[in-house]
Structure formats: structure tokens, C-alpha cells
Design goal:
Layout: H1 15-25, H2 33-38, H3 49-69, H4 76-79, H5 83-95, H6 101-115, H7 148-157, H8 161-165, E1 173-175, H9 176-188, H10 194-206, E2 214-218, E3 227-230, H11 236-244, H12 258-262, H13 266-281, E4 292-293, E5 300-301, E6 305-307, E7 316-318, H14 319-328, H15 336-343
Antiparallel strand pairs: 1-2, 2-3, 4-5, 6-7
Helix pairs in contact: 1-3, 3-6, 5-6, 7-13, 9-10, 13-14, 14-15
Length: 347
């Protein structure tokens, strides 16, 4: 009597199972991506749980395509030859308006990660460029009317919907004074742990906002990072009251349904948050001192001004204000390009 299962020599893992095995080996959750880049391992590792989940789904769509259209192909190694064919098909779907350029780029990135394909490799797939005017998802805050109080809370804190806002608890609030005290304690402490270093970095970022008093404590932001998000806008008092009146350990928005969060326009709310902060700190462009000389033309220009390109060519932004926006959103101070690319449509 023959047995079936893993011990049966006739048993072979399907393409999905092989994909999971490969992606699992590439997991490096919690590790610094910058550190991996310096070691030359960034292309072969996945540091974010969310990225892992996204890539796995994208890879499954590829393997399903291969199994359907090339049933004779039973190994990932042989499936590699169909990557370009698959992505060309997805690019055609983008050109026909069926999917977004972002979807094609994500799937290309996922397959590059699965097969450790580097940009300099001959089979690296160059996905179609994304254009800001083509982005429609979650860009219209006016449609977010199912819970106005929750919407205003999102605009005033910049929290991501599911990872940060939905899980926000009573007690996840602090003040600039408390952050300063914590920073001083950490500076005096000897032999800081990695957690201490992360907390000190979050404190230093929050203390950039010298004119802000109220902050939301985001314990597990993007990439698992801690940050203190300044509360801004006309509804600051209501937001502070809402969090402070929620018992410690209970969810601030526990009464809101999953559907309410599902249909929140997260990006539009974060863009409103970004715009509020930018306008609070931005200087008039013509008043920013010109501190550099262009070697070619000999004309003076300011290194503190960001000159937008492509579809936003002609617009200029205060780099210092953009840096403050980046920090508030949970990025590093120098990520000004990302701020302009994703949020400046609201400025």
C-alpha cells in the first residue's frame, strides 16, 4: 500500500509552494535595509512584513499564469523564462487601462526579488513609468464622508488607516515636554540598546517641531518604527480630547466598523496633513537666500529650494519645510523628493 505526502517520491511541490520556500529564505524582518545595502545584500532580502505579503501575492499571480499557460513548467527555475512574457502582458493591460503602472512595477519588483535580479542584469524588466495624473486611488478627500470626525482625526495626525489609526489606543499621546525629558534620560544612559537608539531617534525627530505641544505616539509605524506624530490643524483640541478620554489599552476608534476604515481615503488625509505642516513652515520662495553659484551660467541660486520636475516643472518648494513634512509622516528629513512626488498635489 503506497503512501502519499512528503515521503512519496512522486510528490512535488507546486510553483506556489516553491515560491513560498524561496521568499521565506529571503526574510530579514526588523533588519536595517541601509545596513543590508552596504553589505550588498539588499536585493536578496525582504525587511518588511508588509512587503513580503505584497510580493508573495504578486508572485502567486505570476505562478498561476505559468501553470495556466505553460502547464509543462513545474519548477521556478524553468518558469523564469516566462517573466518577460508575463510582464509584457501586464504592461499591455496597463496600456488598455485595466491596471495601474504601479501594479506592473510592484509585480516586476516582486519577481526581481524572487529571482534576485539586479538592475544591471540583462533580464531586468523596466516597468512603465508612473505619472502623477494617472493616480486615482484615494486622492479625493471629498468622498470620505462616512465618518467626518474620523476623517478630521486623520487629517490632523497623518496616521495610516489600518496600521496606525485603527489600532490607536488610549494613552498613545504625549507632549513635547515629556519627549524632551525622555530624550535627556536616554542621552545620559550608558550602553544604549537598539531599542533605546530607535527611541532617541524618534525623540530627536519630534523635537524638531519646537512650536508643537501635542503628539500621537505611533508605536509600530511603517517598517515597525516608533515615531511621535505632531497633531496639527484646526481640530487639535478635539483630537487631544478624544485620545485622552479613551481608557488606556482601549482602542480610540473601537466603535468604528471595519468598513468605515476600509473606505477611508488614507492618502488624501495624509496629503492634507502634509499640506498643513508645509504651509506652517514654508518661507516665501523669493525670500529664501541664494547661497550657491551655478558654475555654468554663473547665476546665484538657493540650495534650500526644491525645483520640481516633469509634470510639476515650474513649481518650487522650501526644502526645509519639505523636510519637516517628511519627518512628521515618518520618513527621514532628507526624503523631500518623496514628499513632493506623493503629497505636493495638495500644497
Amino acid at each position: 500500500m503506497s503512501c502519499t505526502g512528503y515521503k512519496d517520491k512522486k510528490y512535488h511541490k507546486n510553483l506556489r509552494q516553491q515560491t513560498v520556500d524561496v521568499l521565506t529564505e529571503k526574510q530579514a524582518f526588523g533588519k536595517s535595509r541601509n545596513h543590508l545595502k552596504k553589505m550588498g545584500l539588499a536585493e536578496d532580502k525582504i525587511t518588511s512584513v508588509e512587503t513580503y505579503r505584497t510580493y508573495k501575492k504578486a508572485c502567486f499571480r505570476f505562478t498561476d499564469y505559468v501553470e495556466k499557460n505553460h502547464p509543462e513548467c513545474t519548477t521556478l527555475k524553468k518558469a523564469r523564462r516566462y517573466i518577460t512574457e508575463y510582464l509584457d502582458m501586464r504592461t499591455k493591460q496597463y496600456q488598455d487601462g485595466k491596471i495601474s503602472a504601479d501594479t506592473v512595477k510592484t509585480e516586476a519588483s516582486a519577481l526581481h526579488k524572487l529571482y534576485t535580479v539586479k538592475p544591471e542584469d540583462k533580464d531586468f524588466y523596466h516597468a512603465p513609468a508612473m505619472h502623477r495624473e494617472d493616480i486615482k486611488r484615494s486622492r479625493n478627500a471629498d468622498t470620505d464622508i462616512n465618518n467626518p470626525e474620523l476623517t478630521e482625526f486623520g487629517k490632523g495626525t497623518g496616521l495610516r488607516t489600518f496600521k496606525e489609526l485603527k489600532v490607536l489606543n488610549g494613552g498613545d499621546y504625549t507632549t513635547r515636554e515629556k519627549i524632551q525629558i525622555l530624550a535627556n534620560e536616554l542621552k545620559r544612559k550608558k550602553n544604549l540598546t537598539r531599542g533605546d537608539h530607535d527611541q532617541l531617534a524618534a525623540c530627536k525627530a519630534a523635537l524638531r517641531f519646537t512650536d508643537k505641544t501635542h503628539f500621537i505616539v505611533v508605536k509600530n509605524g511603517k517598517g515597525g518604527k516608533l515615531r511621535y506624530a505632531p497633531i496639527v490643524g484646526p481640530h487639535t483640541d478635539e483630537i487631544v480630547k478624544k485620545v485622552k478620554e479613551t481608557p488606556v489599552g482601549q482602542k480610540v476608534w473601537g466603535s468604528a466598523s471595519h468598513t468605515t476604515f476600509k473606505y477611508m481615503n488614507e492618502h488624501a488625509n495624509r496629503a492634507e496633513y502634509a499640506a498643513t505642516i508645509y504651509h506652517e513652515y514654508a518661507r516665501p520662495i523669493d525670500e529664501i537666500p541664494k547661497d550657491k553659484i551655478n558654475r555654468g551660467s554663473g547665476k546665484a541660486y538657493s540650495s534650500q529650494v526644491y525645483y520640481a520636475r516633469k509634470d510639476m516643472k515650474g513649481r518650487c518648494f522650501d526644502k526645509c519645510a519639505l523636510g519637516m513634512v517628511a519627518v512628521a509622516l515618518g520618513h527621514s528629513y532628507d526624503r523631500v523628493h518623496d514628499v513632493v512626488s506623493h503629497y505636493a498635489y495638495k500644497f
